[in-house]
Amino acid sequence: MKGGEAVIKSLTDQGVDVVFGYPGGVLLPLYDVIYDSDLKHILVRHEQCAAHAADGYARASGKVGVCIGTSGPGATNLITGIATAYMDSSPILAIAGQVATGLIGNDAFQEVDTLGITIPITKHNFQAMKAEDVPQMIKSGFYIAGTGRPGPVVLDLPKDVQEEEFDYNPNLKIDLPGYKPTKKGHPLQIKKAANLILKSKKPVILAGGGIILSESSPELLKFSELIGAPVTTTLMGKGSFPEDHAHAMGMLGMHGRKVANIVVDECDCLIAIGCRFSDRTTGNVEKFASKAKVIHIDVDPAEIGKNIEADVPIVGDAKITISDLIKTITNLKIKAEKEKANPKWMEYIADFKINCTPRLSFEDFPLKPQQVIKEIRESIDYETIVTTDVGQNQMWMAHYFTSKIPRTFLSSGGLGTMGFGFPAAMGAKVALPENDVVAVCGDGGFLMVSQDLATIKEYDIPIVVCVLDNRYLGMVAQWQRLFYDERMSHTHLGEVPDFVKLAEAFGVQGERVERPGEMEETLKKALKSGEPTLIDVIIDPDEILPMVPPGCGLTEIVGEYKVEREVPGEIPYKAPANEKGGD
Amino acid sequence: MKRVVIEMEGKRTHIISALVLNKPGVLQRVAGLFTRRGFNIDNITVGASEKDKFARMTIISQGDEKVLEQITKQLNKLIDVIKVRDLDPESTVKRELCLIKVHAPAERIRSEVIQYASIFRGRIIDVSSENLTIEITGTPDKIDALIDLLRGFGIKEIARTGPTAISRGIKTI
Ligand SMILES: Cc1ncc(C[n+]2csc(CCOP(=O)(O)OP(=O)(O)O)c2C)c(N)n1
Ligand SMILES: [Mg+2]
Asked: CATH code at B72?
């Protein structure tokens, strides 16, 4: 067998049926094998999109996504996508071509030190120096990418290795003595956590992307109901908990829901699961959850105590750990009947929630983004996968859009990569062709990847891209308005392009939406058509998202927080009679 | 209550011993991790361990307990790192090898240099008409002391390995 054949065999053995890639000189031998193979190859129009598509595929399906780029510029074009996957713990395998082994180190044509460049942005990387390395490395790569805290793996693949003949040995053993992810949380810590939760009067759960990665949403729901705690999520945790549930408070953080930000500030016990307390989630750490004891559950020990000190750290897989916590609490509860979850706490949350439900309906022209999001929500079912780009479009979606199901809200959280939304939607649709997929992008971000309209047309990938067209780099413009004296330095995008014509140039349906009511109609029609579609949504460029300025605590929200029902003054929280101020 | 991970005042020198896979690129992964996370390396030594497959790295780094905890955890996350241990300085033997080339053209100077070297249990490993080369092993302090003494004669070259370390007694990592 040749090295190139071994790549395809190894991928197929891992259950891969589709890869996103772009060929080049050093990949000729591999692409010659792909030519005859059953593996579906989608030719993207920029390697960055191959990586984002593999990432979107992984986030939507839970399987490892695969992308391929050639040596040198092909590999460097993959970098943004690999780093995006790394920051959000998304499992992808990126195969990068490399110059022949004999040329490595000579600054050969299109040589770049892919291994060196990708060390800091991968969970692990390999360089195959012999064809016989290939099956072992791909198998190990899949194992590393998909287990523990998932993440991207890179395989650097020199040209001659793809051509080299070798004897394929089917008995592959994974030999990784330095890789043993912890699964089960320590029983003593679980017991400590259980006692702390039972003692607390005002517990809150903060759910991160780890809930989705470990598929523990059912356990989370049960846990929240058992202990009587409301649930807020990080951006990555969106979809881990049904946002229409009485316990749901929506997203926390810089652009979080008011109820979530204030309740986290008030709580006496914060149970953070599968999250890493990014600065966008915590605001000023000195003011974060300052009255609370913190229980932090994460599969990655390095996240515990990194940004926020935990009173009870638990290293373990979220699914197993929550189940163990539920068991322990159920047992303890029978013994300590009087220490029941405080019903007043949930009542207070329910009241508060009603009084600060963000307003979505606006009859204004130009269109308010809130109204657009409301219409998107009303046009699609909860199984529809939505992706967002980065900027205001992302935060509007995160703040106002209701998600209920894991893996249906895909967004670049950690790296905040403009250009993610559209190719990620493409990857998600390829992974789950039965689901509708809608990308919500900014006009700036979409233009960074718009060439891949060719890909969705050529491969008939019927997604709908909604470009929230404000002709601004809206998020940066918002900061200039709020913090830089409205000096709008280089954030206005001008008058071009005409997005409808742009779509049409690629043979993709183009529609324009300008007034309330049109979004719902157009989106429904687009999804029904089964054709790839771009909808240019002209929105009000002046609408500002409420936010917590950098350096402030989560309760210090600036910008008008428009609520569905106006209530005069603050709602005082009446402490329940039996409260002694949870220690 | 402050929720911040507080920088503790207790900054001290840590001796980190790591068992790693014995293959190319591992040093780059480890050293890169330190730079990227803003941890300083004072010294790093790499060499064979008791097993062919594994090499041992000894890293000397400054920092408080929190910094050290992060370093250890981040090192452990590297797939090529098998085990990491912060060695307790109280129960650790630390040794360094140093070669010193001293300017010693005259007989009288030579015998003086040789005397100093022997007080420090150093050995003369090379002699030429102009120079003497001394080999000395010991704790970094001891080596510093000999170097200070020899400065007056004119030191032409120094090559130090940096310390490597192992825990005392029955403990292994
Ligand atoms: C690749 C990249 N470059 C720059 C940024 C910085 N940035 C964050 S949001 C933003 C504006 C995005 O504008 P647009 O895509 O139009 O979205 P909007 O905020 O208007 O919804 C910029 C430039 C980024 N996140 N990613
Ligand atoms: Mg914009």
From this structure: 3.30.70.260
